[in-house]
Write a structure and sequence with these properties.
This protein has 890 residues and is an alpha/beta fold. The chain has 30 helices and 39 strands.
Length: 890
């Protein structure tokens, strides 16, 4: 088998609502082979992974997968189940998997959910290795694969503090997105977004972090404000440290001025000889060292969020308890085998390291790693209680004395930290503080609070999310997603213009780029999930309109989780033959994801005049019972539209020269067609686009007056570049458009039918379209135009030179033998060559590959942009024969 690639669909996709990995697997010599054909394979697989016996598979019952194994199943399916089973063995269980045949023989797509992306990537490759090894009769040690997957998870997954906050955000319905391979996470969208990195938030003051990092300055500020802190001093050299020890008389704590996680700290120093080692240890982490009086009592951490204490833990040093037979070293191994303990911060507790500090601590009490403690004898292994060195934590939140609580809250406020870990030493946290606050920490770890060794877990992640998003806020901005075959770019731009006119800072993704507040910020086709995420990450954006294309949906999923409004303009045969798409039903399956992911109470807008768009309301995966369903129709005559409105549904159509909103027996005029420049000539496809945009804007809550104002100020040439843009040239007109499929050419025929003179087409078709789609486009173009110039895209998309133009010309000759047609090498040169015909009164429809080049050529020819065909004078039919329209009956 060969793995062609593994990609992450990290938003809702056609496979699952949650992120999945998709592996393209070529079975090669195993293609068409089934498990029952390989004696001993099934038994070997089940001996290595006996848990597979519980897998239900498609049969819906335990043992279903085993039944499939022995009756015969393909090996892509086996790889899927092996990966899922191994995920459970490393404590990362998932149950969703699918295996689908690809468009190439022997290629399968193996799709699996994951809890840890990097671990699952290793498990997928490991599953292939394991299956192949067993087929060769080799002994496969699955433990190696599992260990490597666990290591990948440790190295790449979110840390426990970040995970606690992200989990709380997800429960609140706040969208989140990881921004790097570490712990930087975005919560919310647009202007409501908030950033976190572990427990540092975007609201955490950098100055406050700097103060908290300087332990000497922190103590000075707290002492000045009357908060109890231990006496101490900052020293620069060993002589200063010795003098401080003599002045205080011990015991003292020696620690780096700006250390963290207990690194470089030595407790209980009373003698100069011990001070030397403690000082040198502290200097490893800081150029300056604090010598402070050691307070007597227990070690506590109080977490303060937004000025309020939300959790408290008693921290205890790591220890072992003797059994009378095991050495200290053996007891440590037993403790470290606890599944709650891991390396670093990956799990609730950290494994105890047998380092120099531990050996030194044992030596102080006359022990060593080989010492055998008596039954029940407790051996304390480290001097301080930080979880990062193996300590444990006991929840004491409900015991904190009110005075102590206030002191901790005041300390956090004085330093200026919105999320703050206050360390204090006192005899009993349930009583007024008789010790003092020893440290104030920025970026405090949350492990001890969410997973205490003893006591109640505290929802500190929820507290931080509530601090960032007050009650009732979910961090979301209005999102409208637009999909379909034709018209989606115009609908997106028109809707974005309406919202911009209403005062929104609109983030918009389109086929020509990403826009922020009306400014183009990135050029190119930006209709995929990455572009959507970039808009939703823009802190200026207050509303998003996302053109959402088939390719991005299929290859990477959606770039958002839920929209407020979903619009489907139409679904036609364009793209059939690509990416495994065999027919229109496949396209409906892909594009209906936009309809499926409209939030509860949101609005789904469908085109009643297009059976595929309208039919999405009947799909099982699109639960319209939880949505507001809106149809639009140019004439309002379709049965689907009439029945919907008659039964109380909401619809948009054209009545008496106006766009109207109707339903519930009421009719509201939104805008007169004559007042909408886009509709000046009334072609149905532009009316459809306007109706979709109006429905979307009003679904978002904008009233008719705001929508009408937006429609009236939308200049198609300025605000809708490259989409049916009009240019006057002499007595004729040039239409610059991006059409390249049958539906686009059919719409052109409608526009050209109203012209009083000859209509010339400069057309092409993308090379990645199936032959029958290209031939259908050619046939429609032959009926729409009086003369055809056929160009070839610079990017032939896998076709041989001249192949696509030859297909088109042959089909044109077949269906319209008398129609004059030619293949042109340089489309813009042909445009210049046609200038005399246009100036004489012809309409030239130019379907470009490069908008900028075509637009510049027209301006250089002296063409001027216009907003309406009425700005030029069409000529009579007498000129038709000059451009090659066949005579009647030919």
């Amino acid at each position: 088998m060969r793995i062609a690639g593994i990609r992450n669909l990290n938003g809702p996709s056609v496979y699952h609502a949650r992120p999945v990995l998709l592996m393209e697997l070529h079975l090669e010599e195993l293609d068409e082979k089934e498990t029952r054909e390989f004696p001993g394979f099934n038994e070997a697989l089940l001996s290595v992974l006996p848990g597979l016996r519980q897998h239900h598979c498609g049969l819906g019952r335990e043992g279903g997968f085993v039944e499939r194994l022995f009756t015969g199943t393909f090996f892509g399916h086996v790889v899927e189940h092996v990966a899922l089973e191994m995920a459970g063995l490393i404590g990362s269980p998932v149950t969703y998997g699918k295996t689908r045949a690809g468009e190439e023989p022997g290629m399968y797509r193996v799709i699996v959910r994951y809890a840890s992306e990097h671990a699952m990537r290793r498990l997928l490759t490991g599953a292939v290795d394991l299956v192949e090894g067993l087929l060769r009769g080799e002994k496969v040690d699955v433990r190696v694969i599992l260990a490597e997957a666990e290591a990948a998870a440790r190295a790449n997954d979110l840390g426990p503090s970040t995970s606690a906050i992200v989990g709380a955000a997800a429960r609140r319905g706040v969208p989140w997105r990881r921004l790097n391979d570490a712990n930087l996470v975005q919560l919310g969208h647009g202007h409501k977004r908030r950033l976190i990195q572990a427990s540092i938030t975007g609201a955490t003051s950098h100055v406050a972090v700097e103060i908290a990092s300087d332990k000497g300055l922190t103590k000075h500020l707290l002492r000045e404000a009357g908060v109890k802190v231990p006496d101490g001093t900052v020293v620069d050299d060993l002589d200063g440290a010795l003098k401080a020890l003599l002045d205080m008389g011990g015991p003292v704590v020696v620690k780096p001025l700006d250390g963290n996680q207990g690194k470089g700290i030595t407790l209980g120093v009373t003698q100069p000889v011990r001070l030397l080692g403690a000082y040198q240890l502290a200097r490893r982490y800081s150029s300056q060292v604090i010598i402070e009086r050691q307070l007597q009592g227990k070690d506590y951490r109080v977490l303060v969020v937004g000025g309020r204490a939300v959790s408290a833990s008693e921290r205890r040093p790591c220890e072992v308890v003797g059994d009378g037979a095991s050495t200290v070293e053996q007891l440590i191994h037993i403790v470290n085998s606890d599944p709650k303990r891991g390396e670093g911060h990956e799990r609730p507790l950290t494994r105890i390291a047998m380092d120099d500090e531990l050996v030194e601590r044992l030596g102080e009490v006359g022990m060593s790693l080989e010492y055998v403690p008596a039954p029940g004898q407790t051996v304390v292994l480290k001097r301080h209680a930080n979880l990062s060195v193996g300590g444990t934590a006991v929840d004491v939140t409900d015991l904190v004395h009110p005075e102590t609580r206030k002191a901790c809250e005041r300390a956090a406020t004085l330093i200026g930290l919105d999320v703050c870990g206050v360390d204090l030493v006192t005899s009993d946290i349930a009583k007024p503080m008789d010790g003092g606050i020893v440290e104030v920490n920025a970026a405090p770890g949350l492990r001890m609070h969410v997973s205490p060794s003893e006591g109640q877990a505290r929802a500190v992640g929820d507290a931080i999310v509530s601090h960032l998003f007050p009650q009732g806020e979910d961090g979301r901005i209005p999102i409208c997603a637009v999909t379909g075959t034709n018209g989606k770019t115009t609908v997106t731009r028109l809707l974005g213009h309406v919202l911009g006119g209403a005062g929104e800072h609109v983030g918009m993704t389109t086929t020509d780029g990403v826009y922020s507040g009306g400014e183009l910020v990135r050029r190119g086709d930006n209709t995929g999930p990455a572009s959507a995420r970039s808009v939703l990450s823009d802190p200026a954006v207050t509303a998003a309109v996302l053109e959402t294309a088939r390719g991005g949906i299929l290859r990477r999923g959606l770039g958002y989780d839920w929209s407020d409004v979903g619009i489907v303009t139409n679904v036609t045969r364009d793209h059939v033959g690509q990416d495994g798409i065999s027919d229109v039903e496949d396209l409906v399956w892909i594009k209906s994801l936009v309809a499926e992911r409209v939030r509860d109470g949101g609005t789904l807008v469908l085109n009643a005049d297009d059976p595929e768009s309208a039919g999405m309301a009947d799909l099982k995966r699109v639960d319209v019972s939880r949505l507001s369903l809106v149809f639009y129709s140019v004439s309002g005559a379709s049965q689907r539209y009439r029945l919907h409105v008659a039964t109380g549904g909401l619809g948009y159509t054209v009545r008496d020269g106006a766009i109207v909103r109707e339903g519930d027996g009421r009719r509201q005029v939104v805008a007169r067609l004559a007042d909408v420049p886009l509709l000046a000539n009334g072609p149905a496809f532009q009316v459809e686009n306007a109706l979709a945009a109006v429905a979307g804007a009003m679904a978002l809550g904008y009233d008719a007056a705001v929508v009408a104002r937006g429609l009236a100020t939308f200049d198609n040439g300025k605000h809708n570049r490259g989409r049916a843009n009009l240019y006057a040239l002499g007595a004729g007109c040039v239409v610059l458009d991006y059409g390249h499929n049958p539906a686009a050419f059919r719409a052109s025929a409608e526009l050209g039918a109203g012209w009083g003179g000859p209509v010339i087409g400069v057309i092409g078709a993308p090379g990645d379209r199936r032959d029958d789609v290209i031939l259908e486009s050619a046939s429609i173009a032959a009926a729409a135009f009086d003369r055809l110039l056929i160009r070839e895209d610079v990017d032939r998309r896998g076709r041989a030179p001249g192949e696509v133009p030859a297909l088109i010309r042959a089909e044109v000759a077949r269906v319209a033998p008398g129609l004059r047609s030619e293949v042109v090498r340089d489309a813009c040169a042909a445009l210049r060559r046609m200038a005399p015909d246009v100036q004489a009164g012809a309409m030239l429809m130019f379907y470009y590959e490069d908008y900028e080049e075509a637009h510049a050529t027209l301006l250089d020819m002296g063409a001027r942009p216009i907003s309406s065909l009425s700005a030029v004078r069409p000529v009579s039919d007498d000129a038709v024969q000059s451009v090659g329209r066949p005579a009647a009956g030919s």
